[in-house]
Specification:
Blueprint: H1 2-10, H2 23-36, H3 40-50, H4 55-58, H5 61-64, H6 71-75, H7 101-113, H8 119-135, E1 154-157, E2 160-163, H9 164-174, H10 180-187, H11 192-200, H12 203-218, E3 224-225, H13 227-255
Parallel strand pairs: 1-3
Antiparallel strand pairs: 1-2
């Protein structure tokens, strides 16, 4: 499936900003790490919403629903990213009136807090929230609309043609050859002080972090990526997966403590 997706990108048959989103493994890592840091109260209420499904199991649901022909799912594509044009700041960028990843975050949190929301509505919100917390910690989800978050920037990845967005969503994660549980075991070593620091940041802070990293990622050089690129950005990928999971746990613990 990943090979077919790569071919579609290469031949420009798919040009959608959210075509990739940490693919399967990355999102599952974020979900698994969050699960490990849930409070007892949050764990109980999440079980009431999701049943026996884990956060890792539902982490890719929002991407899977893109195959649903219902128009509402096509409209929901904007929930996976936030475009900030080159040379502009987040504060002076006109937001998409149809929504974006930041407005979606607020909407899903509000639904989970609502005493009037149905279980089905909360399930939808929780599954989507788990997913976009991964997206919000992948810098190309704050990319330029002009290149569709790096989807239109062709690069070489170990002598194969792909695009910059796919490198960050799929290949940097999968190059480690780890399952999502192995990734989680490897990363889950944050100290209490680090956890507190990660969770103190606000969603606006996350946007600014993503934009700062985006500038680094857009500096593609000769566009011929191999082990040197992996070595350079491996620490960033590891950091973002860990922080995304820790912050997701913090968000859920706060929601379900109320």
């Amino acid at each position: 499936m990943r090979f077919l997706l790569s071919l579609l990108v290469v031949f420009n048959l798919v040009a959608v900003q959210s075509a990739f989103a940490y693919e399967k493994t990355g999102h599952r890592v974020v979900g698994e790490l969050a699960e490990r840091h849930l409070s007892d109260a949050a764990r109980l209420q999440i079980r009431q919403i999701l049943g026996n499904q884990s956060l890792a199991e539902v982490a890719n649901w929002a991407d899977e629903m893109k195959s649903n022909p219902d128009e509402k799912w096509r409209a929901a594509n904007v929930y996976h990213y936030l475009n900030v044009p080159e040379g502009q700041t987040f504060e002076n960028t006109e937001r998409n009136p149809a929504g974006d990843i930041l407005s979606a975050y607020g909407e899903f949190v509000a639904t989970l807090k609502s005493v009037n929301a149905t279980r089905a509505e909360k399930e939808h919100a929780l599954k989507f929230l788990v997913h976009i917390m991964g997206d919000m910690h992948q810098p190309m989800h704050f990319g330029h609309a002009s290149d569709q978050g790096g989807n239109r920037i062709k690069v070489m990845w170990f002598d194969e043609v792909t695009n910059l967005h796919a490198v960050w969503d799929i290949f940097l994660v999968d190059k480690e050859k780890l399952s999502f549980t192995e990734w989680s075991d490897f990363l889950d070593k944050a100290t209490p002080e680090e956890i507190k620091s990660y969770q103190k940041a606000t969603p606006i802070d996350w946007v600014h972090e993503g934009l700062a990293m985006r500038e680094m990622v857009y500096n593609v050089g000769d566009r011929d990526f191999s082990w040197g690129y992996v070595y350079k950005y491996r620490p960033v990928i590891r950091q973002q997966l860990l922080i995304g999971g820790i912050r997701l746990a913090g968000v859920l613990n706060t929601i379900f403590a109320e």
